[in-house]
Automatic annotation (TrEMBL):
N-terminal signal peptide: none
Assigned keywords, A-Z: ATP-binding, Cytoplasm, Ligase, Nucleotide-binding, tRNA processing
Family in the record: Belongs to the tRNA(Ile)-lysidine synthase family.
Function of the protein: Ligates lysine onto the cytidine present at position 34 of the AUA codon-specific tRNA(Ile) that contains the anticodon CAU, in an ATP-dependent manner. Cytidine is converted to lysidine, thus changing the amino acid specificity of the tRNA from methionine to isoleucine.
Binding site for ATP: 44-49
Gene from which the chain derives: tilS
Name of the protein in question: tRNA(Ile)-lysidine synthase
Domain remark in the UniProt entry: The N-terminal region contains the highly conserved SGGXDS motif, predicted to be a P-loop motif involved in ATP binding.
Natural source organism: Winkia neuii BV029A5
InterPro entries hit by this protein: Rossmann-like_a/b/a_fold (IPR014729), TilS/TtcA_N (IPR011063), tRNA_Ile_lys_synt (IPR012094), tRNA_Ile_lys_synt_N (IPR012795), tRNA_Ile_lys_synt_subst-bd (IPR015262)
Family annotation (Gene3D superfamilies): 1.20.59.20, HUPs
Residue ranges constituting the tRNA(Ile)-lysidine synthase substrate-binding domain according to the UniProt record: 282-342
Reactions performed catalytically: cytidine(34) in tRNA(Ile2) + L-lysine + ATP = lysidine(34) in tRNA(Ile2) + AMP + diphosphate + H(+)
E.C. designation(s): 6.3.4.19
């Protein structure tokens, strides 16, 4: 097998060019922001991540960066370990400076998809640390199609702007985030074409299929797989056009709105909150003058400052009632915490409890 730099070449073919150029631009940005860090890539062996890893090995080596690849083995299917080991061999042949397999244990919290995702991210972080690259971001192969699917799933859950904003590319704000997704502007068809153009066979995981072995607790197809194979095609047929680009654009616009609201909430928090003995003291009357969307963000940020990071929309609604609809109600119990408003002073306390 040829090395990635030989396969991709200085002038990539038409099939390879969209992915290669996107990654050469991303590596140039990364090199300007973090010139001393290695490029650490999560690669399952599927079309998206294999195209990503191969073109990053090429672009990274041209820019003088070491490229490490991590293949997470979820251990869910009998053949998964052999598949993962084959992917590691392939990436080694392609020229990765280090290529490793990371075994993970998938739990059940949040359902099969969420549990696998959580185990995967934990495994990627652990393997990066073992590669002496703990400070380096993880490069991931999510595409525009993944972004569109995420927007629809968030809409179905009734989520707010933060969830609708979807995934970051990884260089927002002029600095490097912990995860880089340089293919969010490309389609799944582009990564498949890239692998075909390079002559690389990619893994097709049956777990990602609606009729695959993974099911929800009630025996239904996994939500994302069903949405990908059934809902999005049906939506395209109903609208007379592919809806994925518009959904991804909505994610970008929601991200911009979300970041603006978050910045405003941070400013308000600084004005109305003080830290006292490990608790947050809020001036409820001052906070009440702001719009509901900003109040709830301020309350979420205030909770996070004392370690209350699992506040749901229901919790925030109850906290907001202490601010904007005060009529003498008692304390609000929270996951590992409590909120209380003082009747005489109008001050409101947020504190963690000993059950954390």
């Amino acid at each position: 097998m040829k090395k990635a730099s030989e396969l991709v070449g200085a002038t990539p073919s038409a099939q390879v060019r969209p992915v290669s150029l996107a990654l050469r631009r991303a590596v140039a940005t990364f090199d300007a922001l973090a010139p001393s860090l290695p490029i650490v890539v999560g690669c399952s062996g599927g079309a998206d991540s294999l195209a990503l890893a191969t073109c990053l090995i090429d672009a990274g080596s041209r820019a003088g960066h070491d490229v490490y690849t991590i293949t997470v083995d979820h251990g869910i299917r009998p053949e998964s370990t052999a598949e993962a080991e084959e992917v590691v061999r392939k990436l080694t042949w392609l020229g990765a400076d280090k290529a490793v397999r990371e075994q993970v244990q998938v739990g059940s919290a949040g359902g099969p998809e969420a549990a696998a995702r959580d185990a995967r991210y934990e495994g990627l972080a652990r393997a990066a640390a073992e590669l002496s690259a703990a400070g380096a971001p993880i490069w991931l192969g999510h595409t525009l199609d993944d972004q569109a699917e995420g927007v629809l799933l968030s809409l179905a859950r009734g989520s707010g702007t933060h969830s609708l904003a979807g995934m970051r590319q990884g260089f927002e704000g002029g600095h490097v985030h912990s995860r880089i997704r340089p293919l969010l502007g490309l389609r799944r068809a582009d990564t498949e074409a890239c692998c075909n153009g390079l002559g690389l066979q990619y893994v097709v995981d049956p777990s990602n299929k609606a009729d695959g072995p993974w099911k929800t607790a009630d025996g239904q197809a996994l939500r994302r797989a069903a949405l990908r194979e059934r809902a999005l095609p049906a939506l395209a047929q109903a609208l007379g056009k592919d809806a994925a680009p518009a959904l991804a654009k909505s994610a970008l616009l929601a991200r911009q709105d979300d970041e603006a609201l978050e910045a405003m909430a941070q400013t308000i928090l600084a004005e109305v909150a003080t830290d006292e003995d490990g608790q947050i003291l809020l001036q409820a009357n001052a906070l009440a003058s702001h719009l509901p969307a900003l109040r709830r963000r301020v309350l979420r940020l205030a909770g996070a400052r004392v370690g209350l990071t699992e506040l749901t929309a229901t919790h925030l609604q109850a906290l907001d009632a202490l601010v904007s609809n005060w009529h003498g109600q008692g304390p609000v119990d929270l996951p590992a915490g409590q909120a209380l408003r003082e009747a005489k002073t109008g001050r409101m306390w947020l504190r963690a409890t000993s059950e954390r």
